[in-house]
Amino acid sequence: MSDRDPEIAVDWQTRRREMARNGLRRMVELVAAKETDRAAGPLPLHKGVYIDEERFEAERQKLFLAQPVVAGLSGDILEPGDLLVFDAAGPSILVQRGKDGIVRAFRNMCTHRGAKLVEENEPWSGHRSRITCPFHAWTFDSAGKLIGQPSKTSFEGCEIGARNLLEIPCTEHLGLIFVRAGGGDPIDAAAHLGGFADLLSALELHRARPVKKGVLTADSNWKFALDTYSEGYHFSALHNTTIGQTHYNDVASVDRYGRHHRIGFPDNSIGKLIGTPEAEWPETDYGGVHFLFPNTVIFFGSIEPGKFFTQVFRLFPDGVGKTRCQFAVYAPFGVESEAQRAMCEMAYDGTAMVVQTEDYRVASAGYANLLAAPDDFHVILGSNESAVQSVQIHIAEAIGMPIN
Asked: How far is the C-alpha of 86 from the C-alpha of 71, rounded, in Å?
């Protein structure tokens, strides 16, 4: 059994409805109290947290190379022979589903003279039953074995099995494909997710199918751009023509699962439920923003009842002051119609425009200001920005450097 298609006797739709109702209760409480989930107090962060080169190098080594990082979803490489390029974490990596259904990851490097086997860049994906090097036509199967070697007699005495592709740790769990880009120990995805796995299971990510992908960029440190995904304090000011009109500003429920978290942002309909008996509340769809440490944000929700989409943001550093976000929209339970595909494409286009022109615009300008700010300047995260605080604290712990 592949856990991209778990045979688990659970009615996930009912489970999501239960989760939605529990979340709704919490939203009503917060809106009625005119409150938000809070940290103990404000957290000042020295500007070096975002601009220091030594800190950035520690993050590159200890997070993006050493931690399990999401390379894609199971639906990105659904069939044997399907493969994708994952190069945003640093080294170029090929992730391919073998004939046996197992997903493996390899250096995107021919073992002859190091040529790049697949020359496209992320978010490229495709299908190749065998991979042939464009330099000298050495050929490898979907399990990484060298199966073709022109002028084989020229390499007598060189064991062909020693020239298989260089495999790196990779695993598939709950519809997510994790890779440890720097190599090392096998990945224990269940341990990495901890209690967050129960929540992610209900999203049925193994059923999600890609609709549209692209790259968003910011002239900003990756953490500075990531901060905007974990608070709704900016909705009314920055997104005053979009989510600022449909959702409450500065109100969020935050559920923490170790280094991961889930955030719910209440929409304006919540106010109508205050004082109304729960028995009279309507059924609502589950939705939320799910953060997977260290750099992945998954939004699961709907723009109207019963019409869901899944958005995945994976933020990577392109140097200390540059961010590349691999952004993708999926049909959560498969593409059911052309109308649904069009809806998902619209969700991609609308979200990409807002994130690029609003969130990443202010992140880029703010980062430029940090570079020029006095040496003792600190940004300040309010108690109402509790999830942002958690992310920064956990990153600092993971790299073994103080938060200030």
From this structure: 6
